[in-house]
Amino acid sequence: MSEFVAAPPFDIVIFGGSGDLAQRKLLPALYHRDQDGQLSDDSRIFAASRSEMSTGEFRELVLSALKKYLHDGGFNQEVWERFSDRLEYVAVDAVSESGWQDLAVAITDSGERTRIFYCATAPRFFGPIATRLGRSGLVESDSRIVLEKPVGHDRASAEAINNEVCAVFEEPQVFRIDHYLGKETVQNLLALRFGNAFFEHLWNRSTIDHVQITVAEDIGVGRRGDYYDKIGTMRDMVQNHLLQLLCLVAMEPPADLNPETIRDEKLKVLRALKPIGSENVKRNTSRGQYVAGAIDGEPVMAYLDELEDAAASNTETFVGIKAEVENWRWANTPFYMRTGKRMAMKSSEIVIEFTPVSHSIFPQENTALTPNRLTIRLQPNEGVKLSLMSKEPGPGGFMLRSLPLNLSFSDAFELRYPDAYERLLMEVIRGNPALFMRRDEVETAWAWVDRIISAWQERDIGVEKYVPGTWGPAGSALMLDRDNRGWHDSVDE
Questions:
Q1: CA-wise closest residue to 7 among 313, 463, 407, 418
Q2: Residues whose CB is less than 8 angstroms from the CB of residue 369 and which lie 6 or more positions away in sequence, other chains included
Q3: pLDDT above 60 for 2
Q4: Which phi and psi angles does 181 have, rounded to 5°?
Q5: How far is CA 33 from each of CA 116, 142, 405, rounded to the nearest angstrom?
Q6: Contact yes or no for 136/96 (Cβ under 8 A)
Q7: Rounded distance between C-alpha atoms, residue 292 and residue 196, angstroms
Q8: The pLDDT of residue 12 is above 60
Q9: Which residues partner with 345 through β-bridges?
Q10: How confident is the model at residue 493 (pLDDT cuts 50, 70, 90)?
Q11: Are 366 and 398 in contact (CB under 8 A)?
Q12: Are the CB atoms for 468 and 290 separated by under 8 Å?
């Protein structure tokens, strides 16, 4: 277990500090880092939002959130007393001048410390927040701004947001967050590939048949229905989470761990993605939307019934894509991606399927050789599993069976390790951008996604209905079936 290194003193201002993301993820993450001794005594946490409340009322709100969202008895009264002393609340309106002077007064008497501004708000507020921070004289040379995903809803809006933010902050000061990049197993992709000699020799089109990336949720859109209906799964998940995972799998070996070197290699992958347009969008994509049904015996509503306006909606809650990276390493090797809501289980994993054995010496009536698979589990039960063929013990015959070599992080590392937001917040405080998206990454990813969305509209491709508790619509399975392949479903393994 790595030792926790104390972070330098900082002030963090969370815009949208009374909202769901701050209460459910950001403040519990900072509490855990305080619990492990990573926050200096004089570091402070400010919440800024339009709601009128006192600092005392805000602390009560945070206390309630911590007791709700900290798991495994994680709440400690002594830690809370220390943590609560860091918390302050300022009422600030992102789109008017209200409250900005109060915020300036609150944080200017800070001494030598880094200022971090976290935008836990809708993307349309990123630019106005940055602009008003600049006008209020709150941005210093070592200040940083964190932008939650998604940055915009297409390339044009992303460019507009980036232009507005970068008019106040230099690019190295801008941290575009994708919490999947903070997951332990995602970071282990670098160690797995470049810290083990035998994997890198195999990591190419000659020995890998295809790659599958799945990010599945068993929940619906819930109270986010009307917001979600404006963006859909393609914009919400594919443009950021799935494409970032694809980049880490497909990237060339970086020369070193310098953040810009790593991000340069990811950008090359995005630029090498084969375009999906009107001529091939029907064959290479699948759109779905869940209907009413049941999961584990509990009835669930249809997506349409979760909207305030129950009129028909063509917004997708599932996306499947066959992507190709057109370079020497990956030519003609498909990357199948899928993500959706109300699926069979909450599961995120990457499956690397290697090419079949070229010639079997074993009697076919006794066994069927299964291609070797490397499964990288992001959630739940983070870990790595390598499936190998092995002889079943016993006299007579030669029966083979696929068995896993299984590395479970929870078994290998008994201590609790930081979750994604904890790690990413510490990287922002330290000024390390390696786990964050650079502007050109974001805009290049949007350009690829925009073309697919435009092709859906041009070809009038609607959503295919699927039953909750399944792995999505039939069209997703058909996409692989055409290539004589099939999805690897975690629930069956």
A1: 418
A2: 356, 357, 360, 362, 389, 400
A3: no
A4: -70, -15
A5: 16, 22, 33
A6: no
A7: 47
A8: yes
A9: none
A10: very low
A11: yes
A12: yes
Structure token pair of residue 47: 């919440």
Dihedral class, residue 321 (left if φ above 0, else alpha if ψ from -120 to 50, else beta): beta
Spell out the residues 6+ positions from residue 36 whose beta carbon is closer than 8 angstroms to its own.
4, 418
Whole-Å CA distances, 333 to 123, 133, 250, 285, 319: 35, 47, 11, 16, 20
Does the domain at 10-148 match CATH 3.20.20.140? Answer given as no
pLDDT tier for residue 257 given thresholds of 50, 70 and 90: confident
Residue recorded with tokens 């914009």: 235
Q: What band does 491 get if pLDDT is binned at 50, 70 and 90?
A: very low
- Is-contact 132 102, C-beta < 8 A? no
User: What are the residues whose beta carbons fall under 8 Å from the beta carbon of 239, sequence distance 6 or more?
Assistant: 150, 445, 446, 449
456 backbone φψ class: left, alpha, beta (φ>0; ψ -120 to 50)? alpha
- Residue 245 identity: L
| List of E strands, 6-86 | 10-15, 44-49
- 183-418+437-492 folds as Dihydrodipicolinate Reductase; domain 2 (3.30.360)
Q: Which helix (H) or strand (E) holds 52?
A: none
Q: What percent of the chain has pLDDT over 90?
A: 63
Q: Encoding tokens for residue 246?
A: 């694809």
C-alpha–C-alpha distance, residues 83 and 70, integer Å? 14
Tokens read off for 232: 């859909």
Residues designated catalytic:
241
Residue with tokens 């079936």: 481
* pTM score, whole prediction: 0.91
**pLDDT mean across residues, the chain:** 89
Token pair of 233, please?
């799964």
3-state helix, strand, coil in the chain (%, to 5): 40, 20, 40
Which tokens in the block code for residue 187? 């970071």
For the beta carbon of residue 346, count every other beta carbon within 10 angstroms: 13
Whole-angstrom Cα distance, residue 409 to residue 397?
37
Q: Alpha-carbon torsion 162, 166, 171, 176, what sign? A: negative
What does the domain layout of the chain look like in residue ranges?
10-148, 183-418+437-492
Q: Count how many residues are written for the chain.
A: 493
Please report where in the chains the tokens 């055409």 appear, as a residue: 482
Tell me how far CA of residue 171 lies from CA of 203, 278, 437, 466, in angstroms.
Answer: 33, 35, 11, 42
Q: How far apart are CA 371 and CA 488, in angstroms?
A: 12
pLDDT of residue 83: 94
pLDDT at residue 274, as a whole number:
97
The tokens describing 201, both together, are: 């020799």
Residue 73 is predicted with a pLDDT of 65
